[in-house]
Amino acid sequence: MFRYILRRLLQMVLAFFGTTLIVYALTFAGQGDPIQALAGERPVTPAQRAYLTEKYHLDATGVGGFFYRYFDYVKNLLQGNLGESLTGRNIGDILQQAWPVTVRLALIALAVAIIFGVTAGVLAGIRRASIFDNSTLVLTLLVLGIPTIVLAPLAQYFLGVKWQLFPPTAGSDPTFYALLLPGIVLGSLSLATALRLTRASVAENLRADYVRTARSKGLVKRRIVIVHVLRNSLIPVVTFLGVELGNLMSGAIITEGVFNIPGVGFNLFRGIRTEDGPLVVGIVSVLVVVYLVSNLVVDVLYAVLDPRIRYE
Amino acid sequence: MTVQPTPASATPEGGHLLELRDLHVEFRTNEGVARVINGVSYHLDAGETLAVLGESGSGKSVTAQAIMGILDTPPAFVRSGQILYKGEDLLTRPEEQRRQVRGKEIAMIFQDALSALNPVFPVGWQIGETLRQRAGMSRADARRRAIELMDLVKIPGAAKRIGDYPHQFSGGMRQRVMIAMALALDPKVLIADEPTTALDVTVQAQIMDLLADLRRELNMAMILITHDLGVVAGVADRIAVMYAGRIVEHADVRSIYKAPAHPYTKGLLESIPRLDVRGQELSTIKGLPPNLMRIPSGCPFHPRCPYVQQVCVDEFPHDLVLGDGRTSACHFAQEVRDDSVAR
To answer: Which parts of the sequence belong to the ABC transmembrane type-1 domain (chain A) (predicted)?
Structure first.
């Protein structure tokens, strides 16, 4: 297990360099005039141009120059320096403000998915082909079929504006209550998937041979379901939720945009829209690390839950 | 089926320890109703071993699951019949009473121990679970008893292996764990459903010997379900041969091996490879087992039977009692037996 984790950490180092390189290249390589691209549509004075050329080592050209700048960027990154955005703000500071909001939003979404999705999934799996099972199927298909870009404004309009059950937007430093509606919208997709997954897993495990054995031992039905079936059924569900938490932590561009939540996705979207290259690359680099770590945690958790998985 | 002379070891009422009477089970599926068990009757007395023999799909496992009350309903439904345990019909009992019987009176072991054991719990925990839940033992007592049971089924280093998971055992050792679990509550009847089918040949013999020894030591009765005639000979007292959800021949082991009285049994025996006859092609029973949604008219075996006559197509053969207390559901039982003796 220890060796497995060590190997995975080494793989993560490779994955980190690979992904940051790609993101860096996608953003900065192949630009005719990097300085003009950095500045966007605004005019650049000769003094600014000279300053930026020196700051970003733009006097080195070609592939060699690109890698020179990339390694320069990575060197700063490893020292915890994410650089500055085009607006002159420290990207580390931006993330420090944005992340707690996104984490709270992610936890609300995950809680919604677990409380409603997993519970309903277990019930639907036990009562297969019942009215409850069929109605959850229809509802989840509906939710999975509506993109967030439609669902979020609809929820905002009806629940926030028309019936005024929730605040329609969150604004800076949002309260738990203000994040509740966006959290539910964000969580509904995870909820639907968690429900389908749990239902399928429970239904499959109920038919497993070991359930027949448990019955032949004369155990009561409740114990068979809660101890034997659930323990096995929830392995894939926990794995899914772990990966999902990683996704949610990296911010939700649409939901945060619609509800005006100053989270990671919101800032990333702003960076993309204003062609703020350093901001985009800075945020994505950190997201890569979040992703890699959360995936490692899920893999280790998987081995803990399922003794058959032994990472040598 | 005829009732054999009652041995001395019967229950107080003078009946059998376990008796099935005219059991019918069907599977109701979307494609139609499959009649899986069509009037099975057999009995088991204390301390004896009955082998139930037949091809896949002949209904031997379904019969066993009906006895245990662990059929998946739906699709399986017991349509009619009786399952008498110590004279009481289990089928009329409420579920709670049937649950009490499972494991404590009648226990069962399954074919594939890897899938029959729960993969995420240690074996000791799984053996102990029965003791904790059914016998109210404490955690420590259950653990101690689990080690004893693992010793009883001859798992080397039982105390060390109690925390291991099923996938860490070999096939034979896993089946021993399964047996230890079934023996936890000292059952009177042990149903072994193809206990050696998933194992290597060398291990098969060890497990069969173990089962025979344990049956004797613990004075249990055993129903041994198998499709392997080779497994049966040394262990069983009587054999019931099943075909298409029915018992087609029922006799003691010696007479069945000497002179089968049903063409199906005869076919099964002839398909065993023999070391003393070299260079000869193995004989097989031609055709396939019938589709249980459309069981052939008359004798269900007639499309595959070498003795087939018009009467077999037209008339359903009832159990024919032969002189020596055996039965055969064949219109030509006498002829088949005499033919077998002659060869």
So the answer is: 99-302
Chain B residue at shortest CA distance from A234? B120
Tokens of A171: 């604004």
Domain assignment present for A275 = yes
Residue range(s) defining the domain that contains residue A142 = 100-305
What residues in A contact B195, CB-CB < 8 Å? none
Chain B contact for A214, CB < 8 A? yes
* pTM score, whole prediction: 0.81
B164: pLDDT strictly greater than 80:
yes
B257 near A CB under 8 A:
no
Kind and range of the H or E run holding A297:
helix A277-305
Q: How many domains does chain A have?
A: 1
Task: Tell me if A76 is assigned to some domain.
Answer: no
Q: Return the residue in A210, A217, A220, A310 with the most chain B beta carbons within 10 A, the one to mutate for interface testing.
A: A217
- Determine, yes or no, domain membership for A92: no
Q: What residue in B sits closest to A209 (Cα-Cα)?
A: B116
Which range of A191-205, A289-303, B292-306 scores highest in mean pLDDT? It is: A191-205
Residue pointed to by tokens 């009285």: B261
Residues of A in contact with B149 (CB under 8 A): none
Instruction: Tell me, yes or no, whether A54 lies in a domain.
Output: no
3-state secondary structure A4-51: HHHHHHHHHHHHHHHHHHHHHHHHHCCCCCHHHHHHCCCCCCHHHHHH
Here the CATH number for the domain that contains residue A181 is: 1.10.3720.10
The beta-carbon neighbor of B102 closest among A208, A218, A308 is A218
